[in-house]
Amino acid sequence: MNQDNAEDQSVVALATAATAAGYAPSVHNTQPWRWRILADRLELFADRSRQLTAADPPGHLLLISCGAALHHARVALAAQGWTAETDRLPNPAQPDLLAQVRLTGRTPVTAEARRLARTTRVRHTDRRPVSDQTVPADALRAIGKAVSTDARIQLLSDDQILELAAAASRAGATEGADPGTREELEYWTGRNRPAGAGLPAEVLPEREPETTVPGRDFGRPGTLPIGPGHDRTAVYAVLYGDGDDPRDWLRAGEALSAGWLRATELGVSVVPLSGVIEVASTRQTLRVLLAGLGHPYLVLRLGIAAPEHAGPPHTPRLPTAQVIDTLDA
Q1: How far is the C-alpha of 250 from the C-alpha of 275, rounded, in Å?
Q2: Rounded distance between C-alpha atoms, residue 202 and residue 205, angstroms
Q3: Rounded CA separation 169/275 (Å)
Q4: Which of 166, 168, 198, 288 ranks highest by number of CB atoms within 10 Å?
Q5: What residue ranges of the chain are covered by domains with CATH 3.40.109.10?
Q6: Angle ∠(156,313,167) on CA atoms, nearest 5
Q7: Does the pLDDT value for residue 2 go beyond 90?
Q8: CA distances to 6, 9, 65 from 1, in Å
Q9: What is the pTM of this model?
């Protein structure tokens, strides 16, 4: 194979990976990332124009979202038979350059790699109450193992779930009283949201679900049908890690993606709850629940989706031209 053909193949692989990264979960479906494709590597940048400046001024949730996209890109490269080396926050002079993914060689494609890549297309968020079926302990262990490369999860006891519920209520009240946060939420869920981004009505429940831990109040009802179920069998967990700097939050997003894809393979529904992270006092409550063992990044609700409900539609995605720059490839 001549050099030109080899470079063409690598560029195609990188472009495919950047496109697959677009299916990653992100807060309010903001998709706050931008990719630049070079001959032998991908560069991941934060797109601050899609940051939640009211709810997430430090950019923590932006970093988690971008970390999830980074993991999706790595999954796509493995499914194409490429090995890659990831350098996170490689240039202090460019804080929005979050990562470089450099191709290092070829590797046989495994069935697991193909399966994981397919899972990126079917993963979704279902905010409705889960069924009465309990999540198998083996599934919880597998999800915990999947995230363990970059973070950890702590399953909460019944008493801790009640504390979480109180903290979530406080966080909701705090953000509901803030005009900037309300305006921001209106923008990302309303009719004037950016084309290909945000949360359309069809992915939001038609009324407030009956849940132990309250979810986010989006300020408007959606059109997603919801039954009479409750979250009695739901498992709540805190995604956490040792550090609190931007690299740690980025890796938390990679862990979220890894755990969520594994959960999807096992038939476990995942709903991220970020409200308690967005308010400083309730995030501190989570630190207490962790007994000071680490920094909380996100709360996760895990459960088995109600079988009588078809999965909600997938959220829209931005056109590739808005998130991928190929001029230097």
Answers
A1: 18
A2: 8
A3: 9
A4: 168
A5: 137-303
A6: 25
A7: no
A8: 7, 10, 38
A9: 0.96
